[in-house]
From TrEMBL:
It comes from the Bacteria. It holds the Pfam family AMP-binding. The lineage of its organism: Bacteria, Pseudomonadati, Pseudomonadota, Betaproteobacteria, Burkholderiales. Transmembrane segments: none annotated. Belongs to the ATP-dependent AMP-binding enzyme family. One of its GO terms (biological process) is fatty acid metabolic process. This is Putative CoA ligase (AMP-forming). Residues 461-535 form the AMP-binding enzyme C-terminal domain.
Length: 552
């Protein structure tokens, strides 16, 4: 009598010996076990080995467990790039709890809203942020009836003002608890590991829920994408609150590397740390790379090691990629969103590109590229028909992802989750073309396309032209209402220190590189609003352009 059960399904059961749920927590245990004597964290005068970092993380996990943190509990953290932030990324997931890293630039009302929305049970906060957090906690209690347990971090490298707000102090709490015997991952790799909030440029921000499996696979993908060796020395220029540091807290643990922490991000601090600690890897938004390009030569003196940078967070201007190449920094361009754990695509460099001119290399490297090795799908689809656009470099569609490195969904927002996953793909909202080699190139965010007289103008294309002027430090182009054309481009520009250029000169410069109708009709020399990760906040500029138009 035949059976429908395959011979490979008989007596070959899944057991604890042959199956373990994927979780990046396992990387910490391995590095402590194998590389325990090697450096794990550098922070000012502080030094920690992997054995010490694992022990401190296990003490934090034990302390949080004693405070009632368990599977599904939310632990919010308001921390700069410090050892405590690294430890939170190891301890909270080990309890199968959910880590909520708060943006340190947010105001009290938004912080209170987020902590209420994710039902924060514990808050770990640095003294520096005490004034804002005190107000956030007041609002959280008065408006939402929620009072989380507060743990204060008194960082040895911070000498500024800031009151203690909680009943627990971080170091005393660790000292009072024996470390857990092991930092274990979850029973189910689909369990949530973190909730990260989008910027909320339209309506309330959305809570992006990510899982252990995705965090594990993206951490591995980071290493594969960058061909990172064992023991990298990684500089924290990217805020760890941003998409969990693009999963690099776990990537560095996997490789037994060294976290070099920075509380402040500026050119002297970055370049000084690179020189002192022989840093060889760092990540940043384009604005931070531009800081290094504009830095005086003397700040870069003594950096003789090969430094590899990863850029994402916004489409990098061609001038930035070219400028970093001239400095000798090896830049890898990646692309992603909070919903895909940070970077999930990369402009993979091919050997043949090295023979191209610098301008052509810049063009090739400036593309958003192809999917990460462990991401199952990335393409450009017509969002209406869900049909893939031809790889002709001309036909525009929307970038979409599918696979293991995609969020679980939006917290308490099934409608938004369903819309984001419509048709079996995650919709990014980024408009792009697919080039003949199947590398993707963003043309703009759907809301950033300027429609002037029926013609589509890519704000990115205009910005690229502006960045090619030697006086421009930062710029952003948005639409302003126009009674004749419907919309016309207006450019907001910040100049490099000591540089001078007129608006007319910049318009002429753009016209030398673009069709005349694409050039800005107005240039405003004003401070450009940015997020704490260096991303330009165009929604504020669009509002500014509209309000100015109304006044006129």
């Amino acid at each position: 009598m035949s059976s429908n059960i395959s011979i490979y399904e008989q007596g070959l059961d899944q057991t604890t010996a042959n199956f373990v749920a994927l979780s990046p927590v396992s990387f910490v245990e391995r590095s402590a076990e194998v590389f325990g004597d090697l450096p794990a964290v550098v922070h000012g005068a502080r030094r920690q080995t992997w054995a010490q970092t694992r022990e401190r993380s296990a003490r934090l996990a034990a302390a949080l467990r004693a405070l009632g943190v368990a599977r599904g509990s939310t632990v919010s953290v308001m921390l700069p790039n410090t050892p405590e932030m690294v430890e939170a990324h190891y301890a909270v997931p080990a309890l199968n709890a959910v880590l909520n890293t708060l943006n340190t630039r947010l105001d009290a009302a938004l912080l209170a809203w987020q902590m209420n929305h994710c039902e924060a049970q514990v808050l770990i906060t640095d003294r520096e942020f005490a004034p804002t957090i005190a107000e956030a906690l007041r609002l959280l209690h008065s408006e939402h009836g929620r009072t989380p347990i507060v743990i204060d971090v008194c960082d040895s490298e911070y000498a500024g003002p800031g009151d203690r707000l909680g009943t627990h102090e971080y170091e005393a709490l660790l000292a009072a608890h024996a470390p857990l015997a092991r930092l274990d991952g979850p029973a189910d790799e689909w369990d949530a590991i973190a909730v990260s909030y989008t910027s909320g440029t339209t309506g309330d921000p959305k809570g992006v829920v990510t899982h252990h499996r995705g965090a594990y696979l993206n951490a591995v993908s980071n290493a594969a994408t960058w061909t990172m060796p064992h023991f990298p020395i990684y500089l924290w220029t990217l805020p760890m609150f941003h998409c969990n540091g693009w999963c690099f807290p776990w990537t560095i643990a996997m490789l037994g590397g060294t976290h070099v922490c920075l509380r402040r991000v500026d050119a002297p601090s970055i370049l000084g740390a690179m020189r002192e600690h022989r840093v060889d890897h760092y990540c940043a938004a384009p604005i931070v790379h531009n800081l290094l390009i504009a830095a005086p030569d003397e700040l870069r003196a003594g950096i003789t090691q090969k430094v590899r940078g990863m850029v994402a967070g916004a489409a990098p201007p061609a001038a930035m990629i070219e400028g970093m190449a001239k400095l000798g920094f090896d830049i890898t361009h990646v692309y992603g969103l909070t919903e895909v754990y940070g970077p999930a695509a990369v402009a993979v460099k091919r050997a043949s590109w090295a023979g191209e001119s610098l301008s052509e290399q810049t063009r090739l490297n400036g593309r958003q590229g192809v999917r990460y090795a462990l991401q199952e799908g990335m393409t450009v689809l017509d969002p209406e028909t869900m049909v893939e656009t031809p790889a002709d470099g001309q036909t525009m569609g929307e970038i979409m992802f599918r696979g293991n490195i995609v969020m679980k969904g939006y917290l308490k927002n099934p409608q938004a989750s369903a819309a984001a996953f419509a048709g079996g793909w995650f919709h990014t909202g980024d408009l792009a073309v697919m080039e003949p080699d199947r590398y993707v190139k963003i043309k703009d965010r759907s809301k950033d396309i300027i429609i002037s007289g029926g013609e589509n103008i890519s704000s990115i294309e205009v910005e690229d032209a502006l960045y090619r002027h030697p006086a421009v430090m930062a710029c952003a182009v948005v639409a302003r209402p126009d009674p004749k054309w419907g919309e016309t481009p207006v450019a907001y520009v910040e100049l490099k220190p000591g540089a001078e250029v007129s608006a007319a000169e910049l318009v002429t410069h753009c016209k030398s590189l673009l069709a005349g109708y694409k050039a800005p009709k107005e240039v405003r020399f004003e401070a450009i609003p940015k997020t704490s990760t260096g991303k330009i906040q165009k929604f504020q500029l669009r509002e500014r352009a509209r309000s100015t138009q109304a006044i006129e």
